[in-house]
């Protein structure tokens, strides 16, 4: 009983510290390191605080949040991949600042910034290249997340064939790895992909 009470007190203390952190000067600092204005940051923070009252997000909480947006499928694997692209503290949790920084990059960043993030998403082991297996794993997680809402329905073999075709186009030197430069070069030549990147721009 004492342990539970102590834990609750610690959570409340952490919550109070986090809530009181964002004074006007702090908001000004966040506007300088992101592409959001003060009102947008306050709005995002309210939503973040509602889902994560302690002000920190662990992997399980992140997966839960993702699952609410994609109830028709299984978003857990894709959520894990996205979680791994976000800088975390020593405890393995994401702070509001970390969350805001990645949201700014993905939704408001330049094409180059978005492509850097996409590359980091697919480079699962963070060795600086994307293998065909890594691309297949991420694409499979996307189809699992979308579930029955994919039109037409995509089976595992069709997804694999799609990855094979795309990977061959991007891997210019046919060494079995896709580098960041190869990804940027290929995407920059495809107007459809550039337009898709533009749709990531979020209107809050």
Automatic annotation (TrEMBL):
Would I find DNA-binding among this entry's keywords? no
Q: Which superkingdom, per the lineage?
A: Eukaryota
Cite the GO molecular-function annotations of the record: calcium ion binding
Give yes or no: UniProt keyword Repeat.
yes
Q: Which UniProt keywords apply?
A: Calcium, Metal-binding, Repeat
Q: Which InterPro entries match?
A: EF-hand-dom_pair, EF_Hand_1_Ca_BS, EF_hand_dom, Recoverin
Domain (EF-hand) ranges: 74-109, 110-145, 158-193
> Could you say which residues form the signal peptide?
none
Query: Per its UniProt record, what Pfam families does this chain match?
Result: EF-hand_7 (PF13499)
Question: Which PROSITE patterns does the annotation name?
Answer: EF_HAND_1, EF_HAND_2
Family per similarity comment: Belongs to the recoverin family.
Which protein, by its recorded name, is this?
EF-hand domain-containing protein
Species of origin? Acyrthosiphon pisum
